[in-house]
What does this fold into?
Amino acid sequence: MIHLKSPQVDQLDADRKTREIVEDMLSKIRINGEAAVRGYAKDLDGWTQEFALSAEKKAALIAQVPDQAKADIEFAHRQIVRFAQAQRDSITDFHIETEPGVTLGQRCVPVDCAGCYVPGGRYAHVASALMSVATARAAGVPFIVAASPPRGDAIDPAVAYAMDLAGADLILEMGGVQAVASMAMGLFGAKPADILVGPGNAFVAEAKLQLFGGVGIDLFAGPTESAVIADETADPMTVAIDLLSQAEHGTNSPVWLFTTSNALAETVNRILPKIAKEWPTGDVARQAWANHGEIVICEDREQMAEVSDKYACEHLQVQAEDLDWWLQRLRNYGSLFLGEGSTVTHGDKCSGTNHILPTRQAARYTGGLNVMKFLKILTWQEIKTDADPMMSSVASRLSRTEGMDAHARACDWRLQKFGGRENWGFEVAHQKRFD
It folds into this structure.
């Protein structure tokens, strides 16, 4: 394995300053509530208006969205909802009788409130609004709060339309740490969120991380990552363009190429900066490539798969022969794009799979945002009194094996009450009744 190109900046350096700033902001918001949020909004965004988007202002914003943009947003919404609904249908309530008189079951219950953060800095993240809000709605969440930073006097009109179409019950014109905190704490007319979802900058990600525990989060979303697996059959131009397209997210977004072809690796490394010079956002992508881009040349496809699984990247494209082999072999990624006809942009915008995905190797243990993130899998059981002695005898013995006498006595009481005078293999502790 050879690194033709290595990163120049360590992406995993701890950002102590960000952590301290967020800690201070959350502390002040906890103490001073809405007053602290208003202060941050004024200082950071110059915002002095109301935060909750009124019906009148929302209608005025939506009226600004061109018909073609609305049609495209509606198309993306349909695909996302269809996929999310299929996910929801794949997990069901059930119950089984494991022994005569012993019934166990599960219920799939949505959380009461979801807080969906939609970034709005350099770009208007219309698709992120759909990905989070529509997925929560498909999961059956009864109340959804969405927040996005204002751009001037309002949030982006297309983002407002996407939020409304997807089913947001309350839209906050607010960004950053203060927006995440407001949703978590139930400020400005919001219900306290049970889970916070959606991508954001380093401050938003850190705020979610620090709030986790008191509220659930989808995942820790760091800078966007993308990798391409390519063999000698891949087109270097397609590979270079796909890598650059994802580097556009930010100068700290790593992109990686894993290949068995020296010729392809060298060609991509040579032409990628040239392509970047021709693109309007090419300077951002060029810096990301220079600082964080990597090219790894592998001996064979098995080594490419091993390297890819080690990196566990957010987006993974395969431009190589035998796509089914790759589908079955690869294990660690946020979302997979098979074949030259598939590009990450499809998943980012409109194909239907969710684009809120794990970064920084979190794909080793979790997938991306999906309806299950909004569901609680609740278990239940009913043990009939005629089945109780069998269950209680085992539970009592196990409790005593662990040294937990009080646990055992809860079962001993039932053996005393329902079990007759059978020999259970141990001395049942008899409890006199106090009525």
